[in-house]
Amino acid sequence: MKKRTALALFAVAAVLVITALAVILAIGPRPDADRPADRTVTVYFSNVERDPDAVCDRVFPVERRVTAEVPAVEAALRQLLGGPLPDERAQGYSSFFSDATRSRIRGIRTGDGTVYLDLADSRAELVGANSSCGSASLLAQLEQTVSANGGYDRIIVAFDGDPELFYEWLQIGCGEANDYCDPSPFRR
Asked: Which residues, 6+ apart, have CB-to-CB distance to 178 below 8 Å?
């Protein structure tokens, strides 16, 4: 009789545990009051499988989950600068951005529809990005990412607070589109 009682108690306990798990899964986890909710941001990369013609400035979206405590455009740029994840690379996504550029952000500011991205000088990590096709790809990834995450009209990039260094390296130069490489927004 002891064996039957033990089996019956075990069966009841198992049913209670399964019921409790089902209830938890049905109502979902309770968010911590201190922790902001997660959100999705969209980053853009090149993709040779989706674009077999390899059009330089054609980029494709990838969604990433990030914490909501950081502004969307900043979170998206941080994700972009880390490059494609291994499973994304396996699907054909590519970028000049990688683990080597992940921590190169010095600052991100916004104003009047523009994102100002200040990077530590990353020319050594962005090998090939200053070719004509490479610069078109790099800029398309940056521009589409900021547009998709806050609706910004443009992005101006600087190396160590100097946009002229960035745009001359890309062989684009300074002009109206990049505010003639005005460094003042990077000094505020």
From this structure: 156, 163, 167, 172
* Cβ pair 162, 184 in contact under 8 A: no
Q: Which two tokens stand for residue 132?
A: 């004509």
Tracing tokens 């914490």 back to the chain, one arrives at: 67
Mean pLDDT of each 10-residue bin along the chain, 188 residues long: 60 54 48 68 97 95 96 98 98 97 97 97 97 97 97 97 98 96 94
Report if pTM > 0.90: no
Amino acid at 114: T
Residue 177's CB is within 10 A of a number of other CB atoms, namely 11
- Domain boundaries, given as residue ranges, for the chain: 1-30, 38-186
